[in-house]
Specification:
- The chain has 13 helices and twelve strands.
- The chain has 305 residues and is an alpha/beta fold.
- The protein has one domain.
- The strands form three sheets. Strands 4-10-6-11-9 form a five-stranded mixed β-sheet, with helices on both faces.
- Helix 1 links the parallel strand 1 and strand 2.
- The radius of gyration is 19 Å and the shape is globular.
- The relative contact order is 0.13.
- The model has no long low-confidence stretch (mean pLDDT 94).
């Protein structure tokens, strides 16, 4: 659990883990806050969790804290939890089933509930993948390149696979999670489990809200990941590249619209229409556009963002 000034959220995050059967669960909190407030709250859980706390002001980014946590963790299978996210009841048992069913899988993927700052569910965010079957690296790369449809706290991955692919890239301050899923996918196979066990919280201070305010930088972050991984797909990549570029335009336009700038929406809609029927079907399937956008609209309308 990487943290910076997480005192508003960490109690709920740790309580959600402590409420689960704790056998075999180790929790590492890596905090770079300038005060001890976050770790002070975390210390309250030392009698309820197998908890290791690290005060690391030298690890400034969430990438370096997460990479440190993976290397320090004792387990063979790991996941990370944002300090503002939560486990849902049954997460521990579900993860154990997933690992037992396919212990050699590089990743176990799953959907997430999108929750607001109060913890109320705004919607469900699924992956466009067949459930409970091995997914080849090629299939996952093709779909995941169109859009990052993975909520960061949901996957469970093998530590050795993470270390083998180099972990999070700190130069990708916004899209490093997308990049790591694509790197892990290449080490596949992966398995998708259609069980919602994570609450992915959206709020005004989250990276998904603040990180998208500079449109040019935001676009470059996504384009870098596309350019990096598109050559890894076997065969023709033209259709995937067109859908992925349209998706980047839509994401950038929506991020700008969230800040009150609606000028790019028409161009983004045109990019999707120009994909044609087949390309539009691919985009709508893989982008999960409705599942990502509707909860944010609900949050704004209810003023719970």
């Amino acid at each position: 659990m990487p943290s910076y000034r997480g005192e508003q959220w960490i109690r709920a995050a740790l309580e959600s883990i402590a409420s689960e059967p704790s056998t075999g669960i180790e929790v590492l909190v890596i905090d770079s806050s300038p005060t001890g407030a976050t770790l002070g709250i975390a210390e309250e859980f030392t009698t309820r969790l197998n908890l290791r706390l690290f005060a690391r002001p030298d690890l400034e980014s969430w990438h370096t804290k997460t990479n440190f946590g993976v290397e320090a963790a004792a387990g063979c299978h790991l996941c990370w939890l944002g300090v503002d996210d939560v486990w849902l009841p049954g997460r521990a048992a579900a993860v154990q089933r997933w690992i037992n069913s396919a212990p050699r899988a590089a990743m176990h993927l799953a959907p997430a509930a999108i929750v607001d700052r109060r913890g109320d569910t705004l919607g469900l965010w699924h992956c466009p993948l067949p459930a409970d079957a091995e997914i080849s690296a090629g299939t996952l790369l093709e779909r995941l390149l169109v859009q990052n449809f993975v909520a960061a706290p949901a996957p469970v991955f093998r530590k050795r696979a993470w270390l083998a692919c180099g972990g999070l890239d700190p130069t990708l301050w916004y899209t490093a999670d997308w990049d790591i899923w694509l790197k892990l996918a290449a080490l596949g196979p992966s398995v998708y489990h259609d069980e919602v066990t994570i609450g992915f919280r959206i709020h005004a201070g989250s990276l998904t809200t603040t990180g998208s305010r500079d449109s040019d930088t935001f676009t470059r972050q996504m384009q870098t990941v596309l350019d990096r991984h598109l050559p890894r797909i076997e065969g023709s990549t033209a259709a995937i590249a067109r859908a992925a570029r349209a998706s980047i335009k839509v994401n950038t336009a929506l991020a700008a619209a969230a800040q009150g700038d609606y000028t790019a929406l028409a161009s983004a809609a045109s990019a999707v229409l120009l994909l044609g029927p087949g390309g539009m079907r691919r985009y709508l399937r893989d982008s999960r556009i409705r599942e990502r956008v509707v909860p944010r609209i609900r949050a704004k309308l209810s003023r719970s963002l």
